[in-house]
Q: What sequence folds into this?
């Protein structure tokens, strides 16, 4: 597996998501400011609703810009067993049902699934519960998570 290629795919997906969010924000802004959406009475809330939507879309654009900036700054390095799993690590785990999974750990905000080298790779942020649990772990370590009332356990098979 090539971490540099995964990193490139994450940035590419974030760019695409940002472009969609910018277009949605522009459309919402145009709707909110269009002359036909001026309230005619106190019950006519279309303009107000569009303004709320435009505000939310603008916040989403800002979040994506921040996420993209932090992912661009990430420089995935080879796994260092002295430090354990850190940002930029590509981790293979197995659960209690012998299901293997590849995880690419990075900064927050880019949860997505990628296809690489014939495998599905889950991208997760370091502030996600699983991301936090993986930090500092090494191959052979067990990671336990409490998800609602149920708990689950993963073993770290490898880290790159």
A:
């Amino acid at each position: 597996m090539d971490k540099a290629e995964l990193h490139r795919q994450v940035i590419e997906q974030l760019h695409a998501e940002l472009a969609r969010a910018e277009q949605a924000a522009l459309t919402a802004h145009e709707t909110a400011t269009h002359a036909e959406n001026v309230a005619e009475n106190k019950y006519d809330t279309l303009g107000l609703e569009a303004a709320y939507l435009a505000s939310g879309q603008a916040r989403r654009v800002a979040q994506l810009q921040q996420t993209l900036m932090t992912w661009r700054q990430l420089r995935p390095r080879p796994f260092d067993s002295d430090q354990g799993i850190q940002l930029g690590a590509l981790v293979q785990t197995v659960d209690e049902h012998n299901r293997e999974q590849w995880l690419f750990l990075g900064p927050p905000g880019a949860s997505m699934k990628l296809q690489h080298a014939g495998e599905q790779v889950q991208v997760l942020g370091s502030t996600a519960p699983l991301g936090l649990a993986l930090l500092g772990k090494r191959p052979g370590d067990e990671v336990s998570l409490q998800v609602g009332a149920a708990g689950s356990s993963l073993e770290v098979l490898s880290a790159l």
About this structure: The mean pLDDT is 90. The chain has three helices and six strands.
